[in-house]
Known about the structure:
The chain has a single domain (2-122), classed as GMP Synthetase, Chain A, domain 3 (2-Layer Sandwich). Helix content is 49%, strand content 18%. The longest helix has 19 residues, at 15-33. The chain has helices spanning 2-9, 15-33, 73-82, 84-94, 110-122; strands at residues 47-54, 60-67, 102-107. The chain is of the alpha+beta class. It has five helices and three strands; from the N terminus they run ααββααβα.
Amino acid sequence: MGKKSKHMSRHVPSQRQLRVGEELRHLLSQIFDRGELNHPDLVNVTITVSEVRVSPDLNNATIFITRLGGGERKVLIEAAQSASPFIRRQLAKRVYLRRVPKLKFEADTSFDYAMHIDHLLGSID
């Protein structure tokens, strides 16, 4: 039983990971909402930060974002990734962590998946 619970704990985020992830999500949403980014592909774009997953050592964070109204995901992710150093500096000013995690941006596909399931359920009739 000890081995099984040890193995399972690797996949379940700790309370600290969840707390830090939620705090980062909140702060990232503020940074995007306030238009603090001067990147041409991010100006006047409404970005939703749906989730932040933090590694167990808190050194890395994966941020799932989507652009309101759709648009080219690849451009959005590349723009956010190139703005990552600026975003990390902004986070460092606002979050109480010894070290701000490295940021990796990924497209949030959960909305597309939900629409696909909706479509499938609607086609059952």
